[in-house]
Design brief:
By secondary structure, this protein is of the alpha/beta class. It is globular, with a radius of gyration of 22 Å. It has a seven-stranded parallel beta sheet with strand order 6-4-1-7-8-9-10, with helices on both faces. The chain is 40% helix and 19% strand.
Amino acid sequence: MKIGIVNASPYIEGSDGRIYMSPDEQKSLSQWFHIFNDVVLLRPRLAGSDVPAGWLPAPQGVAARPICTAGAPGAAKRRQIREAAGMVDDVDWLYYRLPNFESLWFWQAVAPTKPYFTELHGDMEQAIMAGRKPWLVKKVFSQYFLRRFRKMASGGRFVLSIGPALLEKYVHRADIPPYVTTNHLLCEADYPAQLPEKKRDDVWHLLFVGHIHPRKGLLYLFEALRMLHDEGVRFSLTLAGRGELTGTLESFAHKHGFSDDVCFVGQVPHGEQLFRLYREADLFVLPSVAAEGVPRVTHEAMALGCPVVATDIGSVRWQLNDGCGMVVPPRSAAALRRAIADVMTDGTLYDGLRQKGFERSRAFSLEKQEAGIHRFVRQQLETFSIHL
């Protein structure tokens, strides 16, 4: 059985003729490589043959076919995708990772008789509404794509969803078999044997990892930090990531007198360098206002002994329930300030969040995630008399 995996993450063909992809993407897709023995990646291809630093060759048995050129204008991509739609004649099933425009355009171009299933990874509607375009433009576009992705997800033979919130929003057919899972990258070997002791000093070290973008709610976090600074609370904040809001946040911190307590370290690759940030932080904060599924970053923080304060977006509450993290309303600096202060001052709460979060994260290791997906997909394909 040959499966075609369609998504927007690019690959590159090196000068040696091999296919390369980012390590995060390869690790995320590895669970599918283990399920199917004949895989073709249908995705944008980067121009040239200079492999980005750290990218890995695709494993044996995994091929790639370009559906468009990465970085091309939208109209050109759509045209290229229509032209590439005929390349799946030898593919038995298609697997679409949603939401992204490339998968949607490819689905529209391929004959509807080709069997497929989908996996929901994010909330396109919320992401569009969190952008900077005029409200009416955002509303029209977000509703259009909401309808299209709902139709696409509900038309497959079965669906996987990263957390329950996306499933509830995008799939409205009771006869579509669903499976709720996660998309985390930590293997069992990445976990410490036991929760390490955390030594704290008078300065509380906070951490954020992600895009420095308005939908991450960082303006509310910085307003919460202003309140804490005015109250005389000593803290530092490290932000790992890049984005358009960096200058605005730097100006805000400078205006309110705590710029020396904020450090933007830029993009940090997934691996030991990033893990060290989690281990060294006293508290991880994710103040998102839109477009979260089951965040990897909160999972990684819990796994490495860092308690979490996060906003109630997407499936965050599902991820952090039963005392595994502090969940607060989005768009509320006061709620963030209160939660951060509570964790800072209540040692019993702090230790409980660390222990419960650590235990919860182990239930979402890459191996357990892969085993659950494998069981579900095998069961679904067997209903079509297909055996892996």
